Amino acid sequence: MANKKLEKILLSDTDSKEKTVRFSKTKRSLLSALSLTLTGVICVSGILAVDKSTATIIAQNQSNSIEGKVKSLLPNDALNNKTKIVCYSLKESKYIGRNNKLYVAALDNHIKGYVMTYKTNLGYSDPLVMIAGFTEDKKVYKADIFFSQETPGLGDKVDRAHGSYLDQFNNLGLEDTKWDVKKYGGDFDYFTGATVTSRATVLATYNALKELEKIDTVKLNKCRMN
């Protein structure tokens, strides 16, 4: 009888230990799963936060980039801490293409200069996008290439990163010169081997002057500086 009681107690104790072990394993599994879930949530939140922060930085850099570009092309008398620069979306035009912008710099409600983007399909690669600053009386102050896929070593010679070719446009208005390269009876030099690109920048800037001459900002929609 005593042996049976002892055996019953031992068996009961063994069952209790097995249940405890099973409970501990279940508890550890639940804790492990919960830990992995929390880690995943934290990682995803971190990634989303980084993505949002990166997107904000990129957008800010782009904004700063175009603003800096615009200011670098404005006449000196337009560069004042009180100068207000307003962006306008330009309508599609036979002269400059589509999706272009005009930046108007004004001081005390008096226009001090303009910056405009304009496109041409006269280069080797389409489009060749230019950007130029203009004086208040609508003469070229400074022109530059905004986007180009012209042939490296040839067409890209017109870019300011490779020289001062575009400086020959400075201080010229619509009627001040013959807007073409010398090869075609105009007043502008061109690069041998890159006549097409050289001529494209000349004619594109001439068309930009024609577009600027007829623009009425009252009829245009304002846009963001980007």
Automatic annotation (TrEMBL):
InterPro entries: FMN-bd (IPR007329), Ion_transpt_RnfG/RsxG (IPR010209). The chain crosses the membrane at residues 29-50. Residues 123-212 form the FMN-binding domain. Keywords: Electron transport, Flavoprotein, FMN, Membrane, Phosphoprotein, Transmembrane, Transmembrane helix, Transport. PANTHER family: ION-TRANSLOCATING OXIDOREDUCTASE COMPLEX SUBUNIT G (PTHR36118). This is RnfABCDGE type electron transport complex subunit G.
